[in-house]
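Researcher: I need the complex structure. Ligand is heme C. Inputs:
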Amino acid sequence: MLHKKKIFAFTILTFFVVVGMAAVKINQKERNLKVLPKDISDAKLDSIMQTYNIALGVKCNFCHVPMKNIPDSLDYYSDADPMKENARKMMVMVIDINKKNFNFYPEIRPEYLNTVTCKTCHRGEAFPPED
Ligand code: HEC
Ligand code: HEC
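Model: Output:
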């Protein structure tokens, strides 16, 4: 009887440890994405972010704040820098412009899918030049 109880307790304990580990894992993977698809690959996300750096002539820290405890690393999840929200508005605008105004014949001319990009206006400047 006592033996059975011990096995039962051990099973319960194992269950919670496994659930706990899974929760940590999910938490690590969860992304704070409101415009881009949540299941985007790391490589795709990184290449999009690189295009922002080039289009605006900035570094990643233009939109992302440093980690509280590790100032050398950026906290990509955080929305503390208002530039990140500005950038989200720009992303929505660009998606909208392209959807409404271009790509009439996607089968024949798929290259017009992303006609307007950040670079179209910013041209390497965070604050777009006038002409
Ligand atoms: C012009 C602003 C801007 C710049 C510059 C920028 N990012 Fe971002 N980044 C964003 C925005 C906005 C989001 C959130 C997008 C969304 O909500 O869909 C984001 C999201 C991310 C995420 C996902 C965070 C999460 O919640 O998991 C990572 C990782 C990231 N950026 C890395 C980078 C890296 C690396 C660089 C430099 C190469 C960079 N970013 C440069 C605006 C920027
Ligand atoms: C149609 C032209 C246009 C396009 C396309 C565009 N932007 Fe902008 N963007 C602007 C202008 C103009 C401002 C300045 C607005 C202001 O200060 O009133 C601006 C401002 C910003 C800002 C705020 C910082 C600043 O410079 O004032 C960020 C961040 C930004 N853009 C990111 C992006 C990103 C990322 C993209 C691509 C997803 C993008 N923009 C596409 C015209 C554009």
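Model: Summary of the prediction. The pocket of heme C (ligand 2) is lined by residues 52, 56, 83, 86-87, 90-91, 94, 116, 118, 120-122, 126-128 (CB under 6 Å).
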